[in-house]
Design a protein that fits this description.
Helix content is about 35%, strand content about 25%. It has about 250 residues and is an alpha/beta fold. A hairpin with a 5-residue loop joins strand 1 and strand 2 (about 20-30). Bound molecules: adenosine-5'-triphosphate (ATP) and magnesium ion.
Length: about 250
């Protein structure tokens, strides 16, 4: 499955209770691009990510990785290609210890013994949480849970990262470490976030969603220069552009 181009084409989605959320969303992610998905609470960011992960099916339109449409019959290989972290880390963590949680995907593909130990330790170290290895995930803080979820997907060395609010609840040092990890990841990324400074610092492209419609798809510089767009989309300038250091 080629991950060199991810296409969202005229994507529409309505929840079973009749809530219409996505209204013809189209954009593309080219290989190596770091794409931010921004917009007000309820704009449809997490819904779009849940469609990409196969949690829901579009009402119409499609998502494709290369030439392969995301459908129930292709979703397993989509999930092997893309590493997802979801907005609520509790949806993702279910093993008795942090080590077991990070090891889960590796064990599923047959990694064991010393290799498993090494790869899990490396992933924990990358996100700075080696000291949490023996803790039960459900007793961790929100930011710690988020770090465990990220370690779990980094351990799998995915070809694409799709992250929903990855910096939410992280302390400044953990946030900086996250930014370094994302900067160092050379494949494509889709990052739904309200952290506009992270967008400014690391993203190549910003997709602005409003009520399930793409208002703009442009560089961070172009996006943050468009004050009318920001106002209409419930966005602000990044703190850095307002003269603060985040
Ligand atoms: N299971 C559901 N059933 C019905 N409506 C839902 C469901 N989940 C979300 N919604 C609605 O879909 C819309 C989009 O929600 P979504 O979670 O995608 O927004 P978001 O852009 O991720 O917001 P946030 O910034 O708060 O994370 C909202 O109006 C929300 O109330
Ligand atoms: Mg969301």
């Amino acid at each position: 499955m080629s991950h060199h181009l991810i296409t969202f084409s005229d994507l529409c989605f309505c929840y079973p209770d009749g809530t219409q959320v996505l209204n013809g969303v189209s954009f593309q992610i080219h290989h190596g691009e770091k794409v931010a998905l921004v917009g007000a609470n309820g704009a449809g960011k997490s819904t779009l990510i849940n469609l990409l992960s196969g949690f829901y099916q579009p009402t119409s339109g499609y998502i494709a990785l290369g030439d392969t449409k995301v459908t129930p019959s292709t979703i397993e290989s989509v999930r092997r290609t893309i590493g997802f972290t979801f907005q609520n880390s509790d949806d993702q963590l279910f093993m008795p210890t942090v080590f077991d949680d990070v090891a889960f995907g590796l064990v599923n593909i047959g990694v064991q013994g010393e290799d498993l130990q090494q790869q899990v330790t490396k992933a924990l170290r990358r996100v700075g949480i080696e000291h949490l290895a023996d803790r039960p995930p459900y007793r961790l803080s929100g930011g710690q849970k988020r770090a465990v979820a990220l370690a779990g997907i980094l351990a799998m060395e995915p070809s694409v990262l799709v992250l929903d609010e990855p910096s939410d609840g992280l302390d400044p040092k953990a946030r900086q470490n996250l930014i370094s990890q994302l900067e160092g990841f050379t494949h494509s990324q889709l990052i739904a976030t309200h952290d506009l400074d992270l967008v400014l610092d690391i993203c190549d492209k910003v997709v602005v969603l409003k009520e399930g419609v793409v208002m703009s798809c442009a560089t961070p510089q172009q996006t943050f220069a468009d004050l009318e767009l920001l106002e209409a989309s419930a966005l602000t300038l990044p703190l850095k552009m307002q003269g603060y250091t985040p």
